[in-house]
Design goal:
Blueprint: H1 24-38, H2 41-47, H3 52-82, H4 87-106, H5 110-115, H6 121-126, H7 135-143, H8 151-159, H9 161-164, H10 166-178, E1 183-185, E2 191-193, H11 196-203, H12 208-224, H13 226-246, H14 252-258, H15 264-276, H16 278-291, H17 316-326, H18 332-343, E3 347-348, E4 360-362, E5 370-372, H19 379-401, H20 404-407, H21 411-432, H22 436-464
Parallel strand pairs: 3-5
Antiparallel strand pairs: 1-2, 4-5
Helix pairs in contact: 1-3, 2-3, 3-4, 4-8, 10-13, 13-14, 15-22, 17-19, 17-21, 19-21, 21-22
Length: 465
């Protein structure tokens, strides 16, 4: 893992956001262009529902504005993710959010106006070939009819979007810019400054005292901010409840599942199913305790590997090679895209001060997807690359073969490609590694993936409920 500042990281390990905007000045030009385009919204309102052709033209004009608005926000936010303490990109992100909110407010008349059409008229419009790119969106609008409010109410709600994002923004700043995690001694007695990335590395130490000190020191920082974090989370919950009630949903849970068209019963059944199978999880935890020769398993023992990692540290290049070999079964085209992602600035690799923690894949329509990593050099980091590139390939192909109005996909299916990639990599490693110690380590990782991807995620869902 890098301990350099961002300026010291080699260019080949940083994403190229210039593919969205070549410069901040170009971003400003698009911002001004969007402001100008928004002046035409009153004209759109006059002709929106006149006929299918007018609706198609209106939707194309709105799509153009929303595309620019999306580009503005994604670029500014990803620049901020490079260093959350950078005030320039804090300000640009805020401005991008502001213009997105103003655009949403200005276009809030659209859904009420379309749903106010006489019965069957909108359904008739959908059959028009000029609206082929927008037919799914319009069908979803009809499905949501009972939750769409009046023109004035929709405008008021859209104006609140900026405020609604505050809880998440507050925690992001606390977690990635303001918190200082202190330092601990590693197994060799060397003092290590903790960060999100270093925390995971230290929690995988065979030395239990190191793990305990790391866990205690790391979470002491959160304990010191517990009232602020709790207030931010409380505000987030109240926000969810407010929007659910305002839009006449039975609950915040029902509202959150509506866009996926997933029934609440499925969510409940997931939690119930995991509860029924908890004995399997308990058996695994018991095996973990025995393998580590402990009388009591603590939270700081959860990440300790049950088998020693034979390889040691994987460089980013080695990690990418392993991923490409593991995913070779997906074909030559897929392999060439993985190589392109590595070579042409899709991926931001190393942890640096202020950088957003964790990993994600994101981007804008019309430009290749991006991947944020905080590569640590362990096997888990290799799997993270496979996971995030699964998202990136999903987005790439969706954008390539679908018009912009249909290219997006819901969270309910978003983890399929990424999880499949991890499983393919696991099977590749088990099929090629002969060393018994290394195979045990991979199997240990596979078991932990079940614990985290299935059981822990459901635990989060149950907590929220």
């Amino acid at each position: 893992m890098s301990e350099k500042t961002r300026d010291q990281i080699e260019k080949q390990y940083k994403w190229v956001l210039e593919d969205i905007y070549p410069s901040d000045e170009a971003w400003e030009q698009d911002y001004a262009a969007l402001e100008e385009l928004m002046k035409g919204i009153p004209d759109i309102k006059k002709t929106l529902t006149k006929d299918a052709q007018c609706l198609a033209q209106a939707l194309k004009s709105m799509e153009q504005m929303e595309h620019i608005a999306g580009n503005l926000f994604v670029y500014a936010r990803m620049r901020r993710d490079e260093n959350n303490a950078n005030t320039t990109y804090q300000a640009m992100t805020a401005r991008a959010m502001d213009i997105n909110v103003r655009l949403g407010s200005a276009l809030s008349f659209v859904s009420p106006a379309l749903l106010a059409l006489a019965p069957g008229v909108l359904e008739g419009y959908i059959e028009n070939e000029d609206l082929a790119d927008y037919d799914f969106m319009l069908k979803e609008l009809i499905r949501s009819k009972e939750h769409v409010l009046s023109d004035k109410e929709e405008k008021l709600l859209s104006m609140s979007a900026d405020i609604a994002g505050a809880p998440k923004d507050i925690f992001t700043m606390i977690d990635n810019a303001d918190l200082k995690f202190g330092s601990v001694k590693d197994a060799d007695g060397k003092r290590v400054a903790l960060s999100h990335g270093k925390y995971i590395v230290m929690m995988q130490s065979p030395d239990r005292e190191v793990r305990k000190n790391t866990y205690t020191t790391y979470y002491k920082s959160y304990q010191g901010m517990i009232n602020t974090i709790s207030a931010a989370y409380s505000a987030s919950v109240k926000k969810d409840v407010f929007y659910a009630r305002a839009r006449k949903y039975g609950s915040a849970l029902e509202k959150s599942l509506f866009s996926d068209n997933v029934p609440v019963a499925l969510y409940d059944n997931l939690i119930e199913t995991i509860h029924k199978n908890l004995p399997t999880m308990h058996r695994y935890v018991d095996v973990r305790k025995k393998a580590l020769q402990l009388d009591k398993l603590c939270m700081y023992d959860i990440y300790a590997p049950l088998a020693e990692e034979a390889h040691g540290e994987y460089s980013y290049g080695q990690s990418m090679d392993m991923v490409k070999q593991g995913l070779a079964v997906l074909g030559d085209d897929y392999a060439s895209l993985l190589q392109e992602a590595q070579d042409t600035g899709w991926i931001d690799v190393y942890e640096t001060p202020g950088k957003t923690s964790g990993a994600y894949s994101w981007g804008v329509y019309g430009v290749h997807p991006y991947v944020l990593l905080n590569h640590r050099g362990d096997l888990d980091s290799v799997f993270t690359i496979a996971h995030e590139l699964g998202h990136a390939m999903h987005t790439y192909h969706s954008n390539k073969y679908q018009p912009e109005a249909k290219a997006g996909y819901e969270i309910f299916v978003a983890e399929v490609a990424s999880t499949v990639n991890e499983i393919l990599l696991t099977h590749h490693l088990l099929n090629t590694i002969k060393d018994a110690k290394a195979r045990k380590y991979v199997l240990n990782h596979y078991l932990d993936q079940f614990r985290t991807t299935v059981v822990r995620q459901t635990m989060f869902a149950e907590f929220e409920k």
